[in-house]
Amino acid sequence: MQHTLNITTRNEASVVERLLQVTRYRGYQLAGLAMTPLTDRAGLQITLTVQSEKPITLLTSQLVKLYDVQQLELASADVAVLRA
């Protein structure tokens, strides 16, 4: 099953590395990655597409714990998971 995540993060050098590391450790295969800087250049809008038969909540629950993640939206299921 394929899932698309829209993630808003701080614009830090290692944020993409952390996202991909958690994705790999949880056993999800990367199917696509797109990044766009936010207008204020303080953050990034990342679209991450992953594939796995595992429930996507196993990945989203770990990604929202990352310090640099400000907001996460599960676009493939129209369900939003927000981080304050």
TrEMBL record:
Pfam families, sorted: ACT_5
Record EC number: 2.2.1.6
A GO MF label: acetolactate synthase activity
Alphabetically ordered keywords of this record: Transferase
SUPFAM superfamilies per UniProt: ACT-like
This protein's name: Acetolactate synthase 2 regulatory subunit
Lineage, opening ranks: Bacteria, Pseudomonadati, Pseudomonadota, Gammaproteobacteria, Alteromonadales
Originating gene: ilvM
